[in-house]
Amino acid sequence: MSALLEVSGLVVAFGDVRAVRGVSFTVGEGETLAIVGESGSGKSLSSLAVLGLLPAQARVEAGEIRWDGTDLRAADADRVRRLRGEELAMIFQDPLSALNPSLTVGYQVAEMFRRRRGLGRADAGRRAVEAMTEVGIPDAARRAGAYPHEFSGGMRQRVMIAMALALEPRLLVADEPTTALDVTVQAQILRLLRQRQRAGLAMVIISHDLGVVARAARSVVVMYAGQAVEAGAVADVYPAPAHPYTLGLLAASPSARDGDRRVRPIEGYPPDIAALPGGCAFHPRCPFARQRCRTEEPPLREVAPGRSSACHYAEEVVSRGATVGHAGA
Amino acid sequence: MAQPSATPVLELVDLVAGYRTRQGLFGRRREVRAVAGVNLAVHEGQTVCLVGESGCGKSTVARTVVGLLRPIAGEVRLDGRDVTGLARRDLKAVRRQVQLVFQDPYASLNPHMTVRELITEAWRIHPGLVPQDRWDAELADLLERVGLNAGHAARYPHQFSGGQRQRISIARALAVRPRVIVCDEAVSALDVSIQAQVLTLLRQLQDELGVAYLFITHDLGVVRHFADRVAVMHLGGIVESGDTEQVFLHAAHPYTQALLSAAPSVDDWRDDAPGGEIVLTGDVPSPLDPPAGCRFHTRCWKAQQRCRADEPALEIRDTAHPVACHFPAPLPLVEPPVR
């Protein structure tokens, strides 16, 4: 499969502080990749950098972002803006803040067709209703005349998806798309996203929820303190993680499916990215840590075909996790 | 966990509570019954989880239990004694028994007070609980218990991380030696590694002190891991309750089944194509205007004529597993509805 999006060695900095420290990932045509991590891990910044939507204080300091062969960092702003929306689209956690409260929902969806496709008012309106119907908004013709506050959270997220998909992009970046939603509504949105995946849309899903990732993505990148610490297929990583942080995250996640599993916390707190510990950033919290981990930063390396880990003792972690189960880590 | 004694430490009897609201600027005032007749018992040393989606009334239950909201009808009993009609003076002693830990430790701790002031404030309000010459020793002991130390006492809330602030909130709740702690989404805002720390701490405190928890959450993973008993709430009423494993393995109410099916889990990587998934259509109806009959019928795939007219009562079927549904799943279920 050819790479649609290729990010390598990405560094995002706020002044002197590097919040993303050399992240690489690839999304192929029609693939879904999840980037998972806790607050401050740099997962959202990585995806915002791809779309050229970083906050003003942040800048891409190094690395390459290639879209379908084109270097986006070198491309001019106009071209990036055209790509965004046409080929790359994004949805956010909070659809209410992404919608204009004083315009009807239908107008905002139609605007995509008017501005980007040059359609007239009536045609754009018709396309907007079609797009809203497509994402499961019932009675879309009537609902198009309503304002964002008249929609529930789940329906607003559907509107965002309708807008994002309006121009038939090739990649959708979804940043915590269901975090603000109730669990039954979350299931509806995840199902909608899955339908789009099956139809061939590539996705990058940013999430803190390992359960959502398990349901929504085929491959996963785990981030900690601005770095990718593990990457691989969900079906390989979850049963036998190759990084102690992944192992710890899985063991700490309570499961509604398993009554016997007891959650086990990761000791300590995530580091301040402005004052990272020496060596491996995870070593102060790591049950596997040894002298070497305090001084030598482990690079992300391939530990099995299609799997990589940034741990000196990845092989040991895999065998430990697989033999005793997550809860025994 | 202590053996449940005959009288629950906390009991809600036909509790009705809610708010007055206005629709539009000049609309008529209306009463919203966010809690429409709830019965629930929490025994000493036990954890009862109240689980439901936004607007189901679970936080209103919490506010009513700790006395922040007066119920419209029904009783809140502590050790068998109704405390809803008590005079202010008597309420103080009662309120000490039930403490609340909020979701957001950023908003619930006064930023101008040190940890020492936040915690000793409780002893100032309830004199006689801890004599003043014992404050420092007691404070150090409390901080130690929640995984902090005496050196933290002079610091302000902003100097702590979210997880540490939640530990301070827990220490403050424990300071007055309550029998019950109501946790309203107390771990929902925390990252998963920190959430597991706080859950482990709460369990350890329960083992040491015998405190009971009424744990309010939307997270079914947390429920299964943490609760002895669970009550599933939907639009102001409890639709199903029972021992946690019993309810998770043999959910009988369609809403419980849908919730369990919808909850993402770290074990979901096994299901490549979740075949038996129940996905409800439509939105949760507004609590301002709940549907007639069974309040779930607008989203229920089993709903029949009777469900649109008669509201099903919460009926006990076997020993302790009540379900409010006209057409509950038969007992015993051969297979759990999940997967």
Structure report:
- The complex is a heterodimer of chains A (329) and B (339).
- Chain A is α/β, with parallel strands linked by helices and 329 residues long.
- Chain A contains 13 helices and 12 strands.
- The longest helix of chain A is centred in the middle third of the chain and has 16 residues, at 183-198.
- Chain A is globular, with a radius of gyration of 21 Å.
- The two termini of chain A are 36 Å apart.
- In chain B, helix 3 (115-125) packs parallel to helix 5 (162-174) and helix 5 packs parallel to helix 6 (192-209).
- Chain B has one domain (10-250): Rossmann fold.
- Chain B has 339 residues and is of the alpha/beta class.
- In chain B, the strands form 3 sheets. Chain B has a 6-stranded mixed beta sheet, with helices on both faces.
- In chain B, helix 6 (192-209) links the parallel strand 7 and strand 8 (212-217).
- Chain B is globular.
- Classes of the chains: A alpha/beta (329), B alpha/beta (339).
- At the A-B interface, helix 8, helix 9 and helix 11 of A face helix 6, helix 7, helix 8 and helix 9 of B.
